[in-house]
Design brief:
The complex is a heterodimer of chains A (425) and B (142). By secondary structure, chain A is an alpha/beta fold. Chain A has 16 helices and 14 strands. In chain A, the strands form four sheets. A five-stranded parallel β-sheet of chain A has the order 12-11-10-13-14, sandwiched between helices. A four-stranded parallel β-sheet of chain A has the order 8-7-6-9. Chain A has a three-stranded parallel β-sheet with strand order 3-2-4. The radius of gyration of chain A is 22 Å and the shape is globular. The termini of chain A are far apart. Chain B has one domain: 3-Layer(bba) Sandwich (Glucose Oxidase, domain 1), CATH 3.50.30. Chain B has three helices and eight strands. In chain B, strands 1-8-7-3-4-5-6-2 form an eight-stranded mixed β-sheet. In chain B, α2 links the parallel β5 and β6. Chain B is globular. The N and C termini of chain B lie close together (6 Å). Classes of the chains: A alpha/beta (425), B alpha/beta (142). At the A-B interface, α2, α3, α9 and α15 of A face α1 and α2 of B.
Chain lengths: 425, 142
């Protein structure tokens, strides 16, 4: 099928806007064919995921575009990168890796990207508007932008993100179009206690379950409390986009395209209706862990996606209570928090930074434990409050993982072993 | 040996052959398939531990991480990628990895979409030949 191109698209393809734009447009047009798009459309913001993983090919791709004179034509933020740019030496990252990571970072910033270096760009800078057409990478951010903000993006993978940023164009298809944003399956929360629905761990567990139920369909959730927080929705998005391909969900009365069931389904009927009860959630919670209760713990990781200021505050309060009770971090456990420069700047202006550092918390910025080599090979068991981290850690880091709430992570870090409440709460 | 001919849609066109590695479950390539060894490392996946290198990897669709495109491209460069991929549904992120590799290195992994009946007719270790027009020749032993 032939994609209809505008005059400017043709010029981009002919190299009239430079070699980098020509290469970017070639990739975009080939992807338009893959996705059965009739034509291309404008986007007004991009978020680059391709800057995260350090690989020979990814580095070559970025440096090739930069060397060919690639420049972004729309405001473009960067996902977390492969390096804590200021503190990488503290985390034992080797020089060779760091040198390449710095080259990759430079290629993207040379092309005009904004050095946000975060996987929670919606809590950082240039938050997209409702209805804004954008090209975002990073699965959790894609889900958040579509679902919570009501901006419109497809699931952009590494490398098409920068192509969209350079040209300002994407294939016109998928979630950019209103008719493709209607709910497909209805998930009803049945008899879940309000206290559970106000606990943070609930959202990672629910997200993990939703991802496996929905796969790539658009789920509509009925029964979420209206006062759900941004951090809770972030946890849901990250988990649902890991166990499944959820790029958009609606929550009745909560998310902007779902004031009513009729609106969420655009007056159509759900293809499936599934009731979710407490026992489904307990199973989902158990599925997030491969480590067992009582296992000796090596590392606690918080901040996947990147910690917000509110999450820093919640952690500081938990640690302050431990300190007041004479409890300290177990000497065999490392407690690492991953965050962005944006959240850290707020933390520095608060009373909490000392509470965290005095307790022995290590804070790493701009990166991610999956992309920077900071987890030592001796690390056998890790614990996290993130559904996404719990999903990927066993394969990506070759460790056993325990999922728990932030409070359970802190308790375990003090005791030196995995210890959780029996019930979700 | 009996040969069957299936007609699919070539998402990324190319020729390849190999034995089928079959799964009923979607997979995220990043966090799911190691770009240095080709091993399926998603420990929750039914084919965890299997190796995709040189096989025709038959699974419903990609999922999860948007870094899966980078992982597939890196796998192609390191020589551990599947010979071809056969899916039920188009995953733009996987297609992208193969297409960018084609643009940069002139090396792609062919990706073909088959109709449900044809997709599920392929069995583990069937010998498959993928043609640029999306034709898949299936040779089942015995």
């Amino acid at each position: 099928m032939l994609v209809k191109l505008s005059t400017r698209d043709e010029q981009l393809l002919d190299g009239q806007h430079g070699e980098a734009a020509r290469m970017a447009m070639r990739i975009l047009v080939r992807m338009a064919e893959v996705q059965d798009a009739d034509e291309m459309m404008d986007v007004s913001q991009a978020h680059i995921d391709g800057c995260g993983l350090l690989s020979e090919t990814g580095l070559e791709f970025a440096e090739t575009l930069a060397a060919k004179g690639g420049k972004v034509s729309i405001p473009t933020t960067l996902n977390m990168g492969p390096l804590d740019l200021q503190n990488w030496r503290k985390f034992g990252v080797n020089e060779d890796f760091a040198a390449k990571a710095i080259r990759q970072a430079k290629a993207y910033t040379d092309m005009g990207c904004i050095p946000t270096w975060t996987c929670a760009p919606y809590q950082s800078y240039l938050t997209p508007r409702f209805g804004q057409q954008i090209a975002w990478g990073e699965s959790n951010a894609i889900c958040y932008a579509n679902s919570v903000l009501g901006a419109r993006t497809n699931r952009y993978g590494d490398f098409i993100d920068i192509c969209a940023a350079i040209t300002g164009r994407v294939p016109k298809c998928g979630l950019h179009l209103k008719q493709n944003r209607k709910g497909q399956i209805l998930l009803r929360l049945v008899d879940i206690d309000s206290a559970i629905m106000h606990s943070n761990a609930f959202y990672a567990v629910l997200g993990h379950l939703i991802g496996s139920l929905a796969e790539d369909q658009i789920p509509v959730i009925e029964g979420l409390p209206v006062d759900v927080s941004g951090d809770q929705l972030k946890a849901l998005c990250a988990a649902a986009a890991s166990s499944g391909s959820v790029a958009l969900f609606h929550a009745i009365g909560v998310t902007p395209e779902a004031n009513t069931l009729e609106e969420a389904f655009q007056d159509k009927k759900p293809e499936r209706i599934i009731d979710i009860n407490l026992s489904d959630l307990q199973k989902s919670r158990a599925d997030l862990s491969t480590a067992r209760e009582g296992d000796k713990l090596d590392l606690v990781v918080l901040g996947c996606p990147h910690f917000s200021f509110d999450e820093f505050r919640e952690l500081a309060w938990l640690l302050r209570a431990k300190t007041e009770n004479g409890k300290t971090l177990h000497p065999d456990v490392q407690l690492v928090v991953i965050s962005s420069q944006t959240s850290y700047a707020l933390l520095q202006r608060s009373d909490f930074l000392d509470v965290l550092t005095d307790f022995g918390v290590k804070i790493t910025l701009d990166t991610c434990i999956f992309h920077t080599p900071m987890v030592s090979p001796e690390t056998k068991v890790i614990m996290t409050n993130s559904g996404k981290c719990a999903y990927y850690a066993p394969g990506q880091l070759a460790v056993q993982v325990a999922f728990g709430s932030m409070a359970e992570c802190v308790d375990s870090a003090v005791k030196g072993c995995v210890c959780r409440e029996e019930a979700l709460g | 040996m009996t040969e069957r001919i299936l007609v699919g849609r070539p998402v990324v066109a190319g020729s390849a052959e190999g034995t089928a590695l079959v799964s009923k479950e979607p997979l995220s390539f990043w966090g799911g398939c190691c770009p240095r060894t080709g091993e399926i490392i998603d420990r929750r996946h039914e084919r965890s531990g299997a190796n995709v290198t040189g096989r025709v990897f038959v699974f419903p669709q990609g999922k999860g991480s948007s870094t899966s495109s980078a992982t597939l491209m890196e796998s192609i460069k390191t020589g551990v990628a599947p010979a071809a991929i056969i899916n039920l549904k188009v995953d733009p992120i996987l297609a992208l990895g193969s297409i960018v590799s084609d643009e940069l290195y002139h090396k792609a992994v062919p990706i073909v979409i088959l109709a449900e009946k044809d997709f599920y007719s392929i069995k583990e270790d069937d010998h498959l030949t993928v043609e640029p027009d999306g034709t898949v020749k299936v040779n089942t032993k015995s």
